[in-house]
Amino acid sequence: MNTNIYTIKKGEKYPILIKLKNRDLDEPIDLTGSTIKFQIKDELNDEYFIVEKTIDENSDENCDGRIIDATNGRAVIRLNDCDYNKLVVQRVYYLVITWDIPEQNFSKVISSNGDEYLKFIVCHP
Question: DSSP secondary structure string, 32-79?
Fold first, then answer.
């Protein structure tokens, strides 16, 4: 279970870098031709989300994010002003990341520590 809570300043446009790895083989997952979906939720198990985005190798890295190094499982995701307008300062949120690899016909959920989510709080700029 992920116990870290990361702080994000409201309005900051810095990237959230992720690297998807196969924990059993300790090697990156090839994301060529894949899509990554991320959702921001109030509660981890909530079916509803506040923000949802889907990125791939052709997405705008400076807006929503993009798969930046598919063969090494690396991607960047970003929150924009519209996303921040939906988030309340000093509240904890969950960032849930899912990816689909078409030829392997499966999807997984990950986070920064290999858990199922990343927990963060939004603070004043």
Answer: TT-EEEEEEESSTT-S--SEEEEE-TTS-TTTTEEEEEGGGTEEEE--
Distance CA 86, CA 42 (A): 11
- Which tens digit of pLDDT belongs to each residue from 14-23? 778 888 777 6
- Looking at the domain covering 5-123, what would its CATH class be? mainly beta
Q: What are 70-88's pLDDT values in tens digits?
A: 999 889 888 888 888 888 8
Q: Can you give the pTM of this predicted structure? A: 0.74
pLDDT at 54: 92
Residues contacting residue 105 through CB under 8 Å, at least 6 positions apart:
none
Quote the tokens at residue 95. Answer: 């960032």
* Cα 112 from Cα 4, distance rounded (Å): 10
Domain limits, the chain? 5-123
Q: What pLDDT was estimated at residue 93?
A: 82
CA–CA separation, 60 vs 6, rounded Å? 24
Q: What is the distance between the alpha carbons of residues 13 and 99, in angstroms, rounded to a whole number?
A: 23
